[in-house]
Design a protein that fits this description.
Helix content is 27%, strand content 41%. The protein is built from four helices and seven strands.
């Protein structure tokens, strides 16, 4: 299992950042356009424990993604990839912890992702590539979040 961490600062209040990130539509605003992300269905527009979302987009190839919020507490939530039906996700497992901390006139946004690629030892060959793609995605998310909230 591979771990990816990301941290950035938004010059906006914790409450404003939290409200933005707990509306599932934030994904459409902070995802690079070339990923063609679309929310197909969600059980709740506002993130709540147990809510599920189905999206489609392009990581390397077009894929469908089904995630569930498994933990939600004030200023922290965790989503996990959930495989159902005939879905063939890019990752064997995916767990994304989102944490938001207040600073003076700013909010610290922390992301901790634990992921595993399919295909056993052969899949580990591509972990470096997956981490590089995540780094690029989160650079974009940082800039897009700032544009939305600062």
């Amino acid at each position: 299992m591979k771990v990816f961490n990301n941290k950035f600062v938004v010059y906006s209040s914790l409450e404003k950042v939290w409200a933005f990130y707990t509306n599932i539509r934030h994904l459409e605003k902070i995802t690079p356009p070339q990923m063609n992300l679309r929310i197909l269905h969600t059980t709740s527009e506002e993130i709540e424990e147990g809510s599920e979302t189905w999206i489609t987009g392009k990581i390397i190839f077009n894929m469908k993604w089904h995630s569930r919020i498994v933990t939600l507490e004030r200023y922290r939530y965790v989503d996990e990839m959930f495989v159902s039906g005939s879905e063939k996700p890019f990752f064997k497992s995916w767990r994304h912890e989102h944490v938001f901390k207040a600073g003076e006139g700013q909010t610290i946004v922390l992301d901790l992702i634990k992921l595993e690629l399919p295909f056993g030892p052969a899949g580990r060959i591509f972990e470096g590539f997956a981490i590089k793609r995540l780094r690029n995605l989160f650079k974009y998310r940082e800039a897009a979040t700032r544009k939305q909230l600062e």
